[in-house]
Request: fold
Amino acid sequence: MDKKVSGSVINRLPRYYRHLTDLCSSGTERISSKELSERMGVTASQIRQDLNCFGGFGQQGYGYNVEMLRTEIANILGLNRGYTAVLVGAGHMGRTFATNTKFESRGFKLIGIFDSSPEVIGTEVSDFTVMDYADIKEFIDENHPKMAILTVPKEAMKAVAEDLISMGIKAFMNFSYTELAETEGIIVENVHLSDSLMRLSYKISECENKEKLDKE
Amino acid sequence: MDKKVSGSVINRLPRYYRHLTDLCSSGTERISSKELSERMGVTASQIRQDLNCFGGFGQQGYGYNVEMLRTEIANILGLNRGYTAVLVGAGHMGRTFATNTKFESRGFKLIGIFDSSPEVIGTEVSDFTVMDYADIKEFIDENHPKMAILTVPKEAMKAVAEDLISMGIKAFMNFSYTELAETEGIIVENVHLSDSLMRLSYKISECENKEKLDKE
DNA sequence: TAGATTGTTAATCGATTAACAATC
DNA sequence: TAGATTGTTAATCGATTAACAATC
Reply:
């Protein structure tokens, strides 16, 4: 029925959700695509086009009900599903992500944290006791987590990913510098913080070059 | 002279850099756009188009020299500039980012870490002693950092950003859930980890829906 | 009813891909 | 020289914007 929704639209959905959440908590009841577009710095046309990929959530002459639209987007994103997740690698990044992330309101439920280093196994991370990676197969066979968060060193990433794929995990969030390729049937979201840093570096250089040119 | 390079091209540059770094360390000397395209899962055409925004780095009949191309991209990204950076907010995320990030090879040099909480001020984070945020103006006036990394709670983000802008900071990397708008003359790179999580949630739901349909 | 704003179609713009002459 | 592969132009494709009839 629905034709495939483009990647650009999907990438914008979390941003809509974020802005609608803000509007909700500031008590706004209704908003027009025009008002929202001004807040977000996009065109009203784009907002209407994007939303209409999923259905007609607005009302002519009125606009959109903020709370209703927020709920619709949450459903589209699957934020109500509570997919189970395990986190592998309880180093700095793993501990931070496990501690800071509101999994429940982002579509997931964290159910276990694993590491292979003896100094880390058994330590506490935000309500969890870090388990031995050697026991992960048993855990997966029992609990069937939907997703794995990989916060392991980049040298280990590929082996761990293959390992987990062989145990039936089909979705990954990968924080390591090396990227995990999206192969058949496997869903991957790569997070590369250093890419963001490099993009920022580019923008600063570009800006400096422009200033230099302006002076001439 | 150069016309404006599109955002899509810039977004891909760090990925090229990453792959070229891998090729370098595996000792590969030359690569054709075709080979690289297969490794990266993009078209050879796109690679050639992208690179030619910045110059002709290849040689007909030969391809590209890996090391030379990597250096060129590093220069384009400004990774050799060592822009000075301060980090504000030494909570979990701040400490992790300060510790895990290879600033030197990503265009930056971290020169100071700040926080406003008395329990955190004075503690050590990877070679740095956390300084009192109350003293940041003095520090900025003296050292003129180019960029600030914001790892503060979302409630504090906007006030801190305005504060720092008034002290002359023009570029930000923002980790807080609330986004920092790109206003005139201010460069911003927003990193929203929960957006990535939501995108992954979408992809998993989409995939499940498809499976369900296939069964019918 | 009159005004506002949607949903949707059509027009425009930009990005990606294909093709090929230039040339190492 | 012959083969390979670039740089670049032209063709295609997709995404964004504009416009407007439908309708609350």
Q: What stands out?
A: The longest strand of chain B covers residues 108-115. Chain B touches chain A through 55 residues (CB under 8 Å). Residues 32-34, 44, 48-49, 51-52, 56, 58-64 of chain B lie near DNA strand D (CB under 10 Å from a C1').
